[in-house]
Amino acid sequence: MTGGLTALALEQELLGELRRRGVVVWLDAHGTYTPFVDGLSARAKQGEFPFPVVAFRGSFLEIVLALEPYGSGLDNAPLLIHMPAFTEDSIRATPVLELYEPGFRFRKDPKTLVREVARGRVAPDALEQYLAGAGTVDLAAADAWLASQLTHTREGLAALLEQLGPTLVLDALVDVLERRESFLLQRVGSDAEREVLEAWLARQTGMDAAWLRFYGSDPKATPLASVAGALVGWLLSVEYVHDLNRPPFVAELVRLRDLSAPLVKASLALVDHIRGKHTDSYASLADEVELHLHEELPAIRPEDLGKIDTFRKEEQRVLQGAVDALRAGEWEKVRGWAEARNEERSYWLRRDPARRRAWELAREAAALGSMLTARPRPLEGVRSLDAAVERYAATAYEVDRAHRRFEQRQATLLDSQLPHFGDLKEIVRVLRSAYRGWADRLARDFAAACRAAGFLPDATLQQRAVFEQVVQPLATDERVALFLLDAFRYEMATELLAELKAPGTVVDLKARLAELPTITAVGMNALAPVSQGGRLQVSGTFGGFRTGEFTVRTPDDRARAIGLRTGAKQSVLLQLGEVCELEPEKLKRKIASARVVVVHGTEIDDAGEANLGPATFEIFLRQLRTAFAQLQKAGVKSFVFTADHGFLLLDETTQKVPYGSKRDPAQRYVLDEHPRAEQGMVNVSLSALGYDGLAGYLLFREDTAVFATGNAGATFVHGGNSPQERIIPVLTVRRERPLGRTLMAYRVDAERLPDAMGLRRVRVRLRAAHDDAGQLGFVAAPAVSVGMRAPGHPEVRATLKGVSGPGAVEDGTLRLAMDADWTEVFFALEGPSSEAVRLEVYHPDAVEKVAPKPLDGWFDVDWRRGSVEPVAPQPERVLDWSDALPAGGVRAVFEHLAVHGAITETEVTRMLGSPRAFRRFSLDFDEHVRKVPFRIRTEPGSDGKRYVKEGER
């Protein structure tokens, strides 16, 4: 067995595979490695190789006996089996198959092995010439040839370069190009030294004399700088060529496709190194290389390019292609391009937030378009309500979810600073029109099912039966939290479901049909136990439902009815925002006597009527997760989430249909004394819907059009008979074991940065903090969500526009991993007035221990048209200027100054606790003064310095 470089490299590779894979079956098609394996087997028997080696040498009986001590291979203990002259097919006819199938197949072309070992040691041309003339490669001969090639490359400059390695030499060459100090400026001065450098670079990367001639030299640059520029051009061109989906146009680039795999791998690693270490320089370096490839890049098409945008023009061309493909409805093509171009993968997008947002919008648009194409008519041919609900809950909801997400993201992302803004705005319009057509077809098919089977489903699908069939059985044994949520669509519940799944938790989502008309006064009150014999006693014109001695029409009435039905046990009514903000212990005391905790949430409906719908959906879903976590901490183990109705989003594609005067209809239904047969409408009697106490008929549109009522400004509508309005969720969550205590405590570091491109900017990171006991926890969450808010100003909303760094935006919050680097956050701050506010970074989910972090300074709020309703009640606390100062003595000094107007050195020293603390205060005084809203004059006094307040800034 040879003991040279190839044998050593092969042995190390085998050791790695054995440790990772366990059983390794080596298919040696030509028996080339038989002498090597025999030597390895002998060393294994002597204990010099750590794992057993079994080799087939012509007798199946012998190999079966040799393998007998190693069992079936199911324990996956490391074992090397050498099978010369066998392939994937022929091995199946041998007794080794039992170990081959669960094991790992190993193969190694001898020429590939020699190339891997020779890379960086031997000139590529010499290596290929040797391999071409060698025929069948013999490892001993290859080692001898390598040794002869290496004897004259280990002296002087060549030895220094070998010692430094490719990355350090590349760093020095980049320094030369950037006109910074570099050791190569002193070591490479003569033509002979330059030739040594070129030869060494050729061995490392494959860059040869032909490339140096093609790339040329800058007459204004030094010879060393020309070599450095050519190397960068070579490396970037190798990456570009090997990412292309077609051969290059330029002949000099075509031959790069034949570069050996080890040299390609080394070149790609060096490109990654430039982008990682020389981030700022990469842009100018790549732009310079683009100029040398002026015949290649202008001709590229988006379809030609792969997943890596080496050059700026590539990303620009693919984004233009993505916009064109969106206009053409080529959704899957865009999804492929967009998935390959996120901030983590694309250098160019990391540097340009506007282009990142454009790609994110393209990704969401393609997702919606794909869904519309995949589910063209989900309810076609359905003739029963059971089947309609089943089909919607199986597939159709995915389209509505994709549409809502698209509207959420476009409301956040689309602005005039985006590249291709006009085209993207048109794509939004086209997708809205396509979705409107889809929703109209869905509504008509659902209306046809209602005509055929009736509008009132069986009891198992009725909204009025939710309490008796779902809530009351749970409340028999333990406390239940019942979330009654206004306008909580079924598709939203599917998203919440994924968030609430956890070990020890059982979740179940069922669909039901809301009562008609799908308005709050009907659906919300029907969720209380008001059904009598399956029918509802209407009070007034849908002014509530009568039950026993009172009428259920308000949240308090619903809580009262629920309490009476649960065996006279008291129920507690809480608002969603209240649950989010209460301390767990206080919440626990508040619900201690209740069998059912009723949580009332109107945030979606309020936001829709205030023209803020899509922008606030993420906030609402986040509030639900927070409330769920809060109630778990308070001891609740069973939860039911349900809704009064769903909704339809409104936009410019919504058709408005006149009906009588504008006072006659509601936006989505008409209550009439007669069963009018109007074109495009369906009608149903109130009696057929199981209502008593009110006579007449309800008329609904078959599609998603709204009646012209003169009511403008809302972003969504409900009241009709479409699946989006009628199909509601009943999401049941039960924790089988108690929620474990969170051990880890976190600290948010946050710093304000200058505004950029019309957006506010901060950078944040997550670190471990000491918990109450002064000890660190041991188990950290994979990521923790953080958001921004203006305490005391719930009407001000911080909307995340994009991030740069390791963090990621999910559901409107920023997800941070502990100990990751800084994440730069771009956000808009909107509210009903243009005042300045203080901000803090906080943990909105209330799951982990994260203390809020106030940000320094005041942030200007951009005025937003329309009345903005509070979407997340905040604590009764407003950040003051003093929050920016260190807590304790320093803050007390400036608060004293603010109230009394002056303070002496003696008083300051007493408040700080020691003369040493005063000296530190003096050193940091100017930094502290920048954080207070008034000017301070320092003057001499009998007790040392005297600080005097001089008025507001």
TrEMBL record:
Source taxon at top rank: Bacteria
Protein name: PglZ domain protein
Natural source organism: Anaeromyxobacter dehalogenans (strain ATCC BAA-258 / DSM 21875 / 2CP-1)
Pfam families in the record: PglZ (PF08665)
